[in-house]
Amino acid sequence: MSYRMIALDLDGTLLDGANRIREETLGALKQCLARGLQVVLVTGRHHVAAYPYYHQLGLDSPVLCCNGTYAYDYQAHNALFSNPLTKQQARQVLEKIRQYGVHSLMYVDNAMTYETREPHLDTLLAWADPLPDHVRPAITRVDRFEAEIERVAIVWKFAISHPDTDELQAFIADVEDHIGLSCERSGHHRYDVAQTGNSKGGLLAAWLKTQDIDPAEVIAFGDNHNDISMLEMAGMGVAMGNSDDTVKASARLIIGNNNSNAIADTLRRYVVMAN
Question: Whole-structure pTM over 0.90, yes or no?
Answer without folding.
Answer: yes
